[in-house]
Amino acid sequence: MSKEAEAIRVDKELDLSNAGRGVWLVKVPKYIANKWEKAPGNIEVGKLKISKQVGQKAQVSLTLSDAVINIDPAEEIPRDHRLDVSVVTKQTLGVFSHAVTTTRDDPVPECEKQYMEGRIVQKLECRPYADHCYMKMKLESIRKASQPARQVKSLEKIVHNYKPVSDHKHNIEDRERKKAEGKKSRDDKNAVLDMLFNAFEKHQYYNIKDLVRITRQPISYLKEILKEVCDYNMKNPHKNMWELKKEYRHYKEDDKKDDDTPKDTMSDSDSD
């Protein structure tokens, strides 16, 4: 094992130099804990007073400082509290701390140490005196707790409440269109072919919407027939449009031309 690894292992050992020191475990009300969490680290948060008379238990009291009371002036809390003391006899409780040290030049932690700060010998519970301030605070907390989470309010103007749309209009129209197409009766294939050939006598290119409107056939059934007699253009200038296959093209303008093969071939290439 290297010296560096050995040094790290030694630094992680528990420091028991304060193991014999007795410490107190104090339970404070939530409103005091909230004040102390908001308080900066450079102020006095309170004073602890211990008085003991012969033959009696020690009396412990806590008085919060003005700095803590004034952290949130709107929230009034009791200033004086008593601490009920109980001795820890059947338990062994300890307080531990963990410290990490760094250097100015290197912010990476280089030393890690664990300490035992002491053994808990007494438990103390901080309780407020039932004075006017405490009763007022309790009354306010009861009032807030009794308020319902939801309240009915009268509105003076219209509130625009925008809710997410579960089903958009175009989705509804699309389903209705598909449903309507499904109800269309399929005509005989030859009758549909006659309608298509008559349409292509008038125009060379059609999109699918126009062909559905002309033939009044379900789009899936119409596409099956179109794939047999038509080509679907994937490139401009007639992209996404249907055109008769070469073997089915008999345009009226072709009848005016000669039957010479090269001319027919040129006519076909121009039509594509």
UniProtKB/TrEMBL annotation:
The entry's cellular-component GO terms read: transcription factor TFIIF complex
Subcellular location per the Swiss-Prot or TrEMBL entry? Nucleus
Q: Where is this region: Disordered?
A: 163-187, 251-272
Q: What Gene3D superfamilies does this protein map onto?
A: Winged helix-like DNA-binding domain superfamily/Winged helix DNA-binding domain
* Record keyword Transcription present: yes
Q: Which GO terms describe its molecular function?
A: DNA binding
Q: Give the UniProt keywords, A-Z.
A: DNA-binding, Nucleus, Transcription, Transcription regulation
The cross-references to SUPFAM superfamilies, in alphabetical order and at most eight, read: Rap30/74 interaction domains, Winged helix' DNA-binding domain
- Mainly localized where? nucleus
- What are the BP-aspect GO terms? transcription elongation by RNA polymerase II; transcription initiation at RNA polymerase II promoter
Q: Which residues form the TFIIF beta subunit HTH domain?
A: 186-249
Give every TFIIF beta subunit N-terminal domain span: 21-99
Q: Where is the composition biased (Basic and acidic residues)?
A: 251-266
State the family it belongs to: Belongs to the TFIIF beta subunit family.
As for what it does, the entry says: TFIIF is a general transcription initiation factor that binds to RNA polymerase II and helps to recruit it to the initiation complex in collaboration with TFIIB.
Protein name, per record: General transcription factor IIF subunit 2
Which species does this protein come from? Answer: Anopheles merus (Mosquito)
